[in-house]
Structure formats: C-alpha cells, structure tokens
Design goal:
The protein is mainly α. The chain has helices at 2-10, 14-27, 36-78.
C-alpha cells in the first residue's frame, strides 16, 4: 500500500515506482542482479563485439578477394617467354 500511496503522490504508477526501488536496491548491492553500470557496460561490449565482427567479415572478404588476384598473377608470371 505504501508504494501505491507514494506513486500517486509523485505522479507515476505503482509498477514504475517498484521498478525504481528494485533498480536502486540492485545498484546499492541490497538485492542481487545486474547493476545499472554493469548493464551499460554489457551494452557497450555487445556493440563493440558487433563492430568487431563486422570489421572481421570485411577483412575476411578483402583477404579472399586479394588472394584470388595473387594466384592469378602468379600463374601469369610463369607464362612469360624470355
């Protein structure tokens, strides 16, 4: 009942206030769970991981492209008459 009363006084829903309380308890170490800072860090690491995967894919394709060019050039060098 206290949450409903306070929520109505501050102009939010009881569920919103409960969420804020839970998040604060987690951030302060009172309740188990991933803190806000940890969640933000995880989000950053996931973004970095996506970017690195994208870069690796580009490098993999470029490497395959240039490897094809080298194998063709090597074969052509052997055909030169001297």
């Amino acid at each position: 009942m206290a949450i409903k009363s306070i929520a109505s006084k501050i102009g939010c829903t009881a569920e919103t206030l409960r969420t804020w309380v839970r998040r604060t308890e987690i951030d302060q170490g009172i309740r188990g769970g991933m803190s806000t800072a940890d969640r933000e860090r995880l989000k950053e690491l996931e973004q970095e991981n996506r970017e690195l995967k994208r870069a690796n894919e580009i490098l993999r394709k470029a490497s395959a492209y240039f490897a094809k060019g080298r194998s063709t050039a090597a074969r052509n060098d052997g055909d030169i008459c001297r």
